Each structure stands twice: as structure tokens, then as C-alpha cells.
Amino acid sequence: MIMKILVTAFDPFGGENINPSYEVLKNLKDNIEGAEIIKIQVPTVFYLSVEKVIEKIKEVKPDAVLSIGQAGGRYDITVERIAINIDDARIPDNIGQQPIDTPIDPEGAPAYFATIPIKEIVEEIKKENIPASISNTAGTFVCNHLMYGILNYVHKNGLNIKAGFIHIPYLPVQVLNKPYTPSMSLGDMVKAIETAIKVIAKKSR
Known about the structure:
Layout: E1 4-10, H1 20-27, E2 31-32, E3 35-42, H2 48-60, E4 64-70, E5 77-80, E6 82-84, E7 111-113, H3 118-127, E8 132-135, H4 142-156, E9 162-168, H5 186-204
Parallel strand pairs: 1-3, 1-4, 4-9, 5-8
Antiparallel strand pairs: 2-3, 5-9, 6-7
């Protein structure tokens, strides 16, 4: 059986014309470390984003799910440690929803830890001379919502699927009118995510 890794990315949100996560997704190889890479763009929308990924999980039965999202203002590749059971949106999502202090799943665990090897991923990305670190907060917007939703689904259904989330910076084109805001080249971000996938593939065998 060929290993399958499902990689998700978001559409643009918050007034941006592009989302670096989707630009990275489009440029990923279709086979990495012997694993088939299945790609899906999901809407930056509470609940619907999770539903779309769960549909895809049921369809393709992946061995691992890696989600990518934009974290404007961060300067490095940040591998998320934990997803928390709360939505607290500073801005509306792409259909105008703006939940405040709302549990994602009232019957779910308070939080879930990523099940991908976060420290090894960070170390391997740094070996490519790309800044990377572990993040202990995925925020309270749709990125955290999706990470929590996937881990919650995997846990509740007893599935043997590794799952995690990586935040990436803005692309240079996004910061032309944002002075002193960090960015990273598309090439470096693609290399970083492919490096992460290599680690996940090795550890999921």
C-alpha cells in the first residue's frame, strides 16, 4: 500500500488577494519520500473547513494530514504544538461568521496535541537554513479551528492518522505596503513544507 498524506491549505482571507498556504500547496511535489501527496484547498470558514477535510479523509483514507495556514507577522515556519477547543475571532471568516468565546465542540476535549513529530520537523527545516520554531498557540481563528476539528475527528473515531498544523509567513508580495512586516520566499516555504512531509512520512511508516 502506498502511503497517502493529505495536505490542506486555505483560500485568501482578511482582505488579502492570495494565501501563501495555497501557493505552497500548488507547488508541492505529488510524491514525497514515497508518499502520495493529496492536496485540497479549504475555505477560511468555521465548520465548513473541517467538513471539507473530513469528507476528503473519508474518501482517500490518508495516513497523515498536514494543514498549512498563513500567520501574517510571524517571521519563521512555525509548527503548532496544540489546538484548543475555542473560537474567538478577531475578524469575520469568509462568510461573515465571527464567533466569540465559542467552543468548537461542546463535548470535545479542551485541547489536542499535534501527533506529527513537531521537534524533528523544526530541526530538519533548520538544517535547510530556513528559520523554524515550535509554536504553542495556533490562535483562535479558522487555523486553530481546523487543527482542532481534524484531531477531534481522528480521536473520536479511533483512527490511526497523524495530524498537525504548520503556520507560514506572508509572501514578499503581501508586505509591499506593510512596512517592517516579515515575509519569506515561496521557494523557501515550499522546501520547508516538503521537508516536514518527509519527516512525517518516515515517522508514519
